[in-house]
Amino acid sequence: MTREEETVVITRVLGGDANAFETLVLEYQKQVYNQALRLLDNEEDALDASQDAFLRAYRSLGGFRGESKFSVWLYRLTSNICIDKIRGRKRQQTVSLTVANEDEEPRDQEIPDERSDPAAVLDSAETLRAVADGLNSLSEDYRQILILREINGLSYDEIGSVLQLEVGTVKSRIFRARRQLSGFLMDTGNFCEKAPSDISKEVREA
Amino acid sequence: MMDCSNYQEMISRMMDGDLSVDELAELQGHLSECENCSAVHSAFLSISKNLADDMADPPAELVASVMGAIRGMDVPAAPARFPKVRYIRTMRVLAGAACLAIALFGATRAGLFDNLRMNDTSDGSITSYGMQSVDDTALRDAAAEDGDRSTEITSGTSNQEFGSEWENDNSAAISAELTRVIDATVISNYAENRGEAVSLVSESGGVYELISLLDVDYYLNDIEEIEIECDYYVTFTLVDGSFVTVEIWLTDEEIWCNTDGEQEFYVASCTVREFEVCLYGDES
Question: Which of B46, B75, B217 sits opposite A16 (nearest CB)?
């Protein structure tokens, strides 16, 4: 959806046509949900966070000044909501490491078996899980920025506005996040077709 | 002379379409002769592909629940220049101690100070506000009751109250007013306000008054947690019923503020006895 199209929809919503908001929800739900899912690594929490993000966007829509695209603003809301949830978890310490580990097995089984090639499913699921685990191993900052880039597809400038960072910082942080995630995946035996130990060393030391 | 680390950063930028033609040529030259960087390139690509390919479909209930909730809501109003807010005055004692009281006021300055008790200490330099004690339930109730009331700038350092220029809020006036207030930084819990919600503590050693500056966005977070890791946990209640929180870590002689584990600021040498917080906003 272009910025102009967004503006038209937002104007209709602010004019009292609440149903018009559905256009925005439909347009961005996948991005928002996956952003939350990647940040929170939990489907239920991701759904909650996504609902929350859209509802807050709606309530705050009058305050949206169009300085960025609506989508970017929405991702920023989502990001903040998720970070809040993550920190809430940490504070309450209700998620122990043990529990988190116990969760992994059922999660593996939940990975949808929708790929056409059954032989590829296992490898693919394993890699996907490894990437998800690797993402979770990153610091909050790295995870957040990598998701904004890879899942939400934001530009460096847009990420800078979401996270209030200089573009130079955005570039280097994305690089460091990728590097660290690569290191994790190599250390855990993924991407091993290309001399894992050497690469891993190179990546970590770089 | 570029080393592999530089080239690997270029790989990252290349994937994001950030390289010039010349840079691209240089990188490709390097990749053709450096196995390690080629492997890094493959790894980065693989990460990107895996993340992009693994997009889940959102549950169908997402749209339904959002639209169901929205249909019961008012049309979102055009905002004031600053979001309407109510004021919270919070006071806590030294690190580790429980929060003594949290009181929320949606009222005018007079109403606010009616609820405050001024305590001057022996040397006269320390002034603290005592407050009525309310629990979270009362706080939330108060928030509900005060929903439609806009407020004016309400603040004070010792017995001094800010002048009327505050009522027409502008950041320059606020900044000017705060020039006499130094030494401490509060960063909100959220990236949203990182580096912006800079708040300040009175240098007088008197009331430590933390005033959140601009850009505390009103659509921020709910707060549910009570247990905190930090020493101070400041909560702003906002007009839509949401909350913004600020955490502060203290030691006896230093104030540390932490936003995300990566940024930790040494702020000042002082012992904070207590502090208050207010948000401001006018324009109904």
Answer: B75
